[in-house]
Every structure is written in C-alpha cells, then in structure tokens.
Amino acid sequence: MSGSFVSERSSVDFNLVIFLYTDYNQLCYDNPGFQHSLKLPECLWCKPSAHIESQRSFPVWREFGNRLRVMEASFTEGEFYQEHFDSRAYMDNFYSSPEGHSGEKNLLSYILDSLSKTFSAGRYKGQTLVEVGSGPTIHSVLSACEHFQEIVLSDFTDDSRREVEKWLRNEEGCFSWRPVIQYVCDMEKRSPSEVEAKVRQRVKQVLKCDVRLENPFHPQTLKPADCVITCLCLEAACRDMLEYKKALAHVATLVRPAGVLVMVGVLDESFYYVNQTRFSCLQLSKESIEAELQDLGFTIQELNIFPSPKPQNNVISDHKAVFHLIALKSDKK
Q: pTM of whole model > 0.85?
C-alpha cells in the first residue's frame, strides 16, 4: 500500500485497512502520506467531511477515527520513552556514520560541524560542562572535551544512561562511536584514540535528568556550570510552549552567570521515528526560542539554521530545519 490511500476520493476498502492496520505507529511508518495528512486542517480524520459523513453508518470506521484522533493528540513524554525508547536502535539508525540517518540528509554532519566550530577554537572553556538530555550519545562533547575538565552527561531513561556508561567503560559490545569520532578528528586535526580517552576520563557523572523539574537533577544539586549543552532534547520533552518555557528556565539555572548555553534542536517538527515507534516533538519556531532566551537574560551570540532538504520526502521525521545557537547568560546574579 502507498500513502495515497488516505485521499478522500480513495476507493480502497477502509474496513479492510482498519482490519490490517490496528497499530497506529505501523500505519504511519508504512504510509508516509498518512502521517503528513494528519497535520492538514482538511484531513479526513480531523475534520468532518462529506466523505466521512457518508461513512458514519460503519461503527468500526467511527471507532478507528476516534482512536486516531486520541493517539495523535497524546504526547510521548518521559514515561513513554522509559518504556518504549530503544537506545541501541536509535544509535544504530542515527549515529552509525557521520552523515546520520540516510533519510535526514547530513543532519548529523551539520551538528558535528556546528559543535566543532563552537568549541575547537577554545573561546568557550572552563572547569565544568553539563549536557542536559544526552540520550545514549556522546557526540555533543567530542569537540568540547578538550576545553572542560569535568563533564556531566544525563538523560531521563535508564537504558540511554546504561548505553553511555557501557561506552565510557569500554565494555564489550558497546556502541562504536569511532566513525563519528574520526570525522570530528579529521576536522580538528586530533587523534581519535586520544579523543576517546579524554572523553572517558573527563566525563565524571552520568545522571538521571528530567527537565520538567525545577531542579532537573533532583535529588542531586549541581553547581552552575561554565557551559551547558542541550541537543535535540527540550522539544522532545515538552508538550506545549508553556512546558517548554518552564523547561528552558530550569536549564538556565544550570548555567553560571556569564556562562554559555549551547543549543541544537529542530524547528517545526511534530514527530520522529526510531524503527517503527513514533515519538512526538513540540513544533518550535526560531522566533519563539529567541524570545524565551531573551526573557531569561541570555544574549544570543550566534544562531544558525540548516534547512531540511525536501522535508516532504523525509519519512523519519518532519522537521523543517535544524538550529544551532550560542547564548551568553547575564553576569548579574
């Protein structure tokens, strides 16, 4: 089947479709056109139409339509990640090569390039660096590890933290970051083995983190850091702009006065997939991020946008662009 079956003029037997596809994630994964149609105002699932009215006599149609509306409205928060996020599949799919996922056209390369430009010159340096929402990954600190003596990584899910700890201990079967490390080292003229050793030596803690909490590391309390990084985290953790504003304020407390906040995220994304599991994203705009940071007393030093090539062809996620920003916190306590 192709995504074309979602058209209001479709002649497909919808009762058969409902019977074959009882799992919403599978339906979206196998039919990219379907997931995009859900976001359209005239979408046959979301707005009454002549076609839907003509189908009201089929209880199963009505029940399935209601189920889709409810599931589309639900946001995959931290508890869903704890149960359903496959950390190893995520790394295999998105971090096996420096290009990243084949469906996202060099998104990872852009992130690695941006972080290298941010940190390799040594302009931003200090004693402590904290990454909020590392996931199972270490790529965000590869360039920064040269300039910070103590690094803290963190994530909400137990499985993601375990994957990081396995790599830090160099356990048998841990994920291989060598292709990504090699890419960064080629840019920065560094030795991959030395970078691996430095990251393993300088990452002092891997903590549980929940950005919804006023202290994201509760019950532990960290001293405000010289640098805080958050990469592809907040938009996946916050269901609306009110939650995003609160989470960003919580992250801001982790940065010392005159410290630096480095953010990488996606713009206007509502979902992404890890294998066949769909995860939600809060659709952000450049303007909303700028406004929230300004309200928190940050001055943006740099804000770069990398548009997604042909986003309509991307079935892994629907982001329109990736952003990278550097912001300095006010030195007023």
A: no
